[in-house]
Amino acid sequence: MSYIGVTPTARSRAMVSEARHLLLTVAPGASWIFIFLVLPSAYLMGVAFMTNGPYGLPEMPLSLASFERLAGFGFLGWSPGNLYTLLRSLWQTLVSTGLVVVVAYPIAYYITTCREKWRPILLLAVVVPSWTNQVIRTFGWMNLLAPGTPLSGLAEGLGLIAPNMGLYPSNFAVTLGLVYNFLPFMVLPLYGAFEKLDTAQVEAAQDLYASPVRAFWHAVFPQTLPGLLAGIVLVAIPAFGMYVIPELLGGGKGMMLGNLVANQFSGGANWPLGAAGAILMLLATFIGLYVMRRIGKRLGGGEEVVI
Amino acid sequence: MSETITADIADQPGATPAAEETPQEAAGRKASSIEMQGLHKRFGRDTVALDGVDLEIRAGEFFTLLGPSGCGKTTLLRILAGLEEPDDGSLVVGGKTLTEVPPHRRSVNTVFQSYALFPHLSVRDNLAFGLKMRGLPAAERDAKVDEIAEFIKLGDLVDRRVDQLSGGQRQRIALARALVCEPDVLLLDEPLSALDAGLRSQLQVELLRVQKRLGMTFVFVTHDQDEAMVMSDRIAVLNGGNIQQVGAPREVYERPVNAFVARFMGHDNLYPVRERQGDRLTTALGTLTAEEAGEGELLLIRPETLDLLPGEVEGANHVPATVAERLYRGSHAEFRLEIGDTTLQATVNNRGRHLPEVGDRVTVVVAPEDLVTLSE
């Protein structure tokens, strides 16, 4: 904006009014972010570098003890427990996200091929289960997978599990719970990508000697990539920090990083260790996002894929 | 890097004879004729896109499918490409029956209306796409892409990204991407319709030159009769899934077989013949003498065949009229003349002579040899 040709007093008045305008529009959002994001994060950072006091509350002096414990160095020397939890979290995230992609991709494609009047109904059918409380749905899976249920019986009959073990609690149950829980978050962005698919590109690929499989790979897949990456982010980040599902379906051997952190703020009572775990999760998430961005750029032909 | 590889291949005698061929030679060698017989295509229950099309397109011809939207021209082109399967009928290209061959097994390439370039690939990768799918080694692909880039005069466009190209540049890349595959037949689906008028006429000329130099069979779809006349060796006019007329541009324009073709080619001067005595035809304009007018029940008078004389002049095929409207176009002027209750359009070249004004009485001179009759 320019104020050329306006008298100095009018100009300064205009600047004051612009500053006021800016304050009124930006301040509410900015203070919200400051009070509920910046301050708590800073507090958490601080806690992570403090000493564990009585009842698990943080105390001075500053120390790196929490990070050492997180890395597995305890009173009895090094133990791999926390490392296993981290690796299990990564593995569960990877596997469940991968399975969600495999299941959601054909669903999203199928919905776009349906008649227009059916599409909202089918999308609703995908989304509606997520309107029920996550804990209740997870309890549902417990009942379906527990020892003695038909599903467990079937798995026993096929020799997949030992007799009377049941499919729950297990890492398998956690994976299943994660896939079930996050499916809608992958279907929706993929559906968005499929809906605006430029079919002329697919026809051009076929016209230029691409077999159906190669036409998919070269003309369909790149067009759905932004939706796919968005879905992966929507699924992988919450899955990595998931607390309820491993808590209910995993049993003692299914613990994930989210449970480790949560336990330090309640039962285990070690706030600095919990804060250190939270920071580790944050770091892992940022690294994951960075890698996704790079992949998106590479596959998108240098084009920015917005996540 | 790629230079040395190309040299290696060229050194091996007889290894890749195609690589030493220019695109012109390769295309001339491959130019194919097309025969379509009884092609039917229906969409849903009620929409008939093609209603029994028989058509023969000669090898090396620039052939245009012309018609209004919904006439079936695009469906016909898509059947040629293999993107649509006919319900009935057969398609033979270069002696091979292609009716049920999928698109990726046909040596037919298309320039799409929307260009359909791959936005995630560079221009070079777009150009090389067809060759890559055919399994050509990278060095040969590079050589062919460079060759076509020079032929279409793409210059440094090859190293750009697709989203950095203008409409006209995209059009040329789409053309090059199809041509580099050296297809038997090149299909063009209204490739110039998205461009502004100036660029459009420039690319018309360019496209025509490319076709003549390559000697490749081009099948071109358009709804623009001017474009069709400029470009084509022959035109097929379609309406309602049927071919109305096939012929050279002059034939279709000057001797349309029916009222639809006449109107589509831009003719408005159509008058029902009320009475016929030998070569004397009576219409709303009066009685006119015609040479070889044919047996049709509609008389067509092309506006540019008419002469206007000032004032009222007696004579054979002289019709008195009043100027109702004059559109001055510089090189020529268009007149709307009133004759009794009917109107007549006349186009007169501006040769510096007297141009009648609105309201003037004039005499229209109709040459007997320019009169044509046609059927409804």
Automatic annotation (TrEMBL), chain A:
Keyword presence, Ribosomal protein: no
Compartments where found: Cell membrane
Residue ranges of the TM segments: 21-50, 90-109, 172-191, 228-249, 269-291
Keyword Transport: yes
Domain of life: Bacteria
Main location: membrane
Keyword entries, A-Z: Cell membrane, Membrane, Transmembrane, Transmembrane helix, Transport
Membrane topology term: Multi-pass membrane protein
Residue ranges constituting the ABC transmembrane type-1 domain according to the UniProt record: 86-292
CDD domains the UniProt entry points to: TM_PBP2
Matching Pfam families: BPD_transp_1 (PF00528)
Family matches, as PANTHER family: INNER MEMBRANE ABC TRANSPORTER PERMEASE PROTEIN YDCU-RELATED (PTHR42929:SF1), INNER MEMBRANE ABC TRANSPORTER PERMEASE PROTEIN YDCU-RELATED-RELATED (PTHR42929)
Record-stated family: Belongs to the binding-protein-dependent transport system permease family. CysTW subfamily.
Listed name of the protein: ABC transporter permease
Source organism per UniProt: Halomonas koreensis
From TrEMBL, chain B:
A Pfam cross-reference name: ABC_tran
Enzyme Commission numbers on file: 7.6.2.11
Keywords for the protein's UniProt record, in alphabetical order: ATP-binding, Cell membrane, Membrane, Nucleotide-binding, Translocase, Transport
Coiled coil segments of this chain: none
PROSITE patterns: ABC_TRANSPORTER_1, ABC_TRANSPORTER_2
SMART domains, alphabetized: AAA
InterPro entries reported for this sequence: AAA+_ATPase, ABC_SmlMolc_Importer, ABC_transporter-like_ATP-bd, ABC_transporter-like_CS, Mo/tungstate-bd_C_term_dom, P-loop_NTPase, PotA-like, Transp-assoc_OB_typ2
Family designation: Belongs to the ABC transporter superfamily. Spermidine/putrescine importer (TC 3.A.1.11.1) family.
Function text: Part of the ABC transporter complex PotABCD involved in spermidine/putrescine import. Responsible for energy coupling to the transport system.
Complex and partners: The complex is composed of two ATP-binding proteins (PotA), two transmembrane proteins (PotB and PotC) and a solute-binding protein (PotD).
Protein name in the entry: Spermidine/putrescine import ATP-binding protein PotA
Organism: Halomonas koreensis
